[in-house]
Amino acid sequence: MRLVLVGPPGAGKGTQAQFIAEHLSVPKISTGDIFRANVSQGTPLGLQAKAYMDRGDLVPDDVTIDMVRNRLAEDDARRGFLLDGFPRTVPQAEVLDDMLAALGVKLDVVLELVVEDDEVIRRLSGRRTCRTCNHIWHVDFDPPAVEGVCDLDRGELYQRDDDKPETIANRLKVYAEATSPLVNYYSGRGLLIGIDATGPVDDVTVRAIDALRPLQHGE
Ligand code: ADP
Ligand code: AMP
């Protein structure tokens, strides 16, 4: 299955991507994770992306598109993928259509995680990420057993630089202006399924998997 997750920052895309990708046995491709790995390794791509990320702005389309084109060309993406955080603009979505057409394949579904702004702000303010395995926690809603330590691999948890209040505000504005038009773009193509992404993480996962089930059986 070829699937895209959309929704505002903090909607739970990274959290759900993990479970859904495992369920579908496809690789999870998170552009935010790839950018952050490049920033922490100090690669040329990371140096290019860092200033935009720190402000909560989008990295320019040409940089992002080249990165995704390379990732989708890898072997493990041939039989399906879950994209988390890409596309984030209509031009990115148009290029994705072209890339997939060149490979003779199409997107199967775009899953929108629907959450109000107030909830998104609560989620982003308490987000913590494992430095080694990237697992996502929340200080109140999904806390690890020991504060600051990942339950899965004992890695150190950190707060993302772009989860500061002023950057969160800019990211929500950027989402409204640049990314939310994707909802119309994909619903116009009959690809969009929206699910309520409020409530416990496990409940959202069940809603997501239920929504995808008919597609998995090719109905
Ligand atoms: P996104 O990838 O869309 O930016 P994340 O998956 O990183 O969002 O989630 C943002 C924060 O919200 C994280 O701290 C995560 O633990 C928390 N979170 C995710 N899903 C839920 C949920 N259903 N209820 C409460 N908190 C959640
Ligand atoms: P995320 O982890 O999805 O919240 O992304 C973190 C940051 O990475 C964003 O605020 C952007 O600066 C950058 N980024 C991630 N994906 C994209 C994309 N598709 N287009 C442009 N910038 C992106």
What does this structure look like?
The chain has nine helices and eight strands. It starts with a strand and ends with a helix. Helix 1 (13-24) crosses helix 9 (201-216). The mean pLDDT is 95. Strand 5 (127-130) and strand 6 form a beta hairpin. The chain has helices at residues 13-24, 31-41, 44-55, 61-72, 90-102, 117-125, 165-179, 181-188, 201-216, and strands at residues 2-6, 28-30, 81-84, 109-114, 127-130, 136-138, 157-158, 192-196. The strands form two sheets. The protein has a five-stranded parallel β-sheet with strand order 2-3-1-4-8, with helices on both faces. The protein has a single domain, classed as Rossmann fold. Adenosine monophosphate binds at residues 9, 31-32, 35, 52-53, 56-59, 64, 85-86, 88, 92, 162, 171.
Q: Topology, pairings included?
A:
Elements: E1 2-6, H1 13-24, E2 28-30, H2 31-41, H3 44-55, H4 61-72, E3 81-84, H5 90-102, E4 109-114, H6 117-125, E5 127-130, E6 136-138, E7 157-158, H7 165-179, H8 181-188, E8 192-196, H9 201-216
Parallel strand pairs: 1-3, 1-4, 2-3, 4-8
Antiparallel strand pairs: 5-6, 5-7
Helix pairs in contact: 1-9, 2-3, 4-5
